[in-house]
Amino acid sequence: MDRDPEGKTILIVDDMPANLGVLTTHLEREGYTAVVAQGGEECITRAHFVQPDLILLDVMMPGLDGFETCRRLKAAPETQDIPVVFMTALTDTGDKLTGFSVGGIDYVTKPLDGAEVLARIDTHLTLHRLRRQLARQNEQLQEEIDARRETEAALRRSNAELEQLAYVASHDMQEPLRMVASYLQLVAQRYKGQLDADADEFIGYAVDGAKRMQALINDLLAYSRLGTKARPFEATDCDKVVDIALGHLAIARTESGAQVTRDPLPRVMGDASQLLQLFQNLLANAFKFKRVDPLQVHIGAQAIEGAWRISVSDNGIGIAPEYFERIFVLFQRLHGRGDYPGTGIGLALCKKIVERHGGTIAVESKEGQGSTFSFTIPR
């Protein structure tokens, strides 16, 4: 039998029928459901069957007394959580300590005062409900913790598999691809002009395809290592990171004729190597998609609530609004390879880096008027 969903079922145990009658009447008048037993054995049987929300248990009873009855109730898994309040005329401190030692939670003294009994019942039922709610919340929390641990373990396994795949891509796949590219280039150099024009063109296509495959594998490798080779966050000076990025891009910057300006950039908590990749990709795009001379690129920084917003703006070719989301998706390109080289991974990599740092990335642009890529990093 299930407990009363409102927690209002009380089992009253007393060997005196008169006491049972008075308590039953009083409790039922206050909206409780009263169940009675006249001895310890009957109490244990009724408690197992009824599953009351609280037991009022007389101490002095023939046969099985209240202390032993309570001890047996607490020893049984089905009844161990039911609160027990003793009813007794005993006033000795030792008797009360015995009651608490066997699992009782309170005493009411005979002759009983109806208001006191109700007050104690209400208090203990409320506390019991709160304890059960807390226990359920703890169980749910433990389930969530266990689920998170399983997820983390699965993620670790996945990362290990991804790292193994990255190893294969960087060694086993790259080596034969380098051989194909090298021999194709050798054929192109040695036999250029000796075959017909179509043959020269076909060899050129093959060499170009091998090089593009190498670039694609290298970019995929960089993308996969964002998770497997990530470093702990540390205080990072973005000004120094941009200096390094511009150094790496010195040739591209010179060829584009870009004039680069910047605001003072903040120190942030981040992975310096990944932030370098982020700035390098955004600046490389700005240098690549040039429209007019002089190409102007500005790196801005603004403090907003709880974060820094850092931007890379240019006066390049711009992007149509319908492509704002698409450009951050892996392998998505807006231009043919003949117009602008690339694998379509750079901005997807930027997005993954920013999200790992707890921020967001977005673009504002007008076709033919330039673009502003901005990302946030928590302060």
UniProtKB/TrEMBL annotation:
This is histidine kinase. Keywords: Coiled coil, Kinase, Phosphoprotein, Transferase. Residues 168-379 form the Histidine kinase domain. It holds the Pfam family HATPase_c. The keyword Chloroplast does not apply. Its EC number is 2.7.13.3. It comes from the Bacteria. Its main location: membrane. It is a multi-pass membrane protein. CDD domains: HisKA, REC_PA4781-like. GO terms for cellular component: plasma membrane. Residues 9-125 form the Response regulatory domain. It catalyses: ATP + protein L-histidine = ADP + protein N-phospho-L-histidine. The modification 4-aspartylphosphate is found at D58. The keyword Nuclease does not apply.
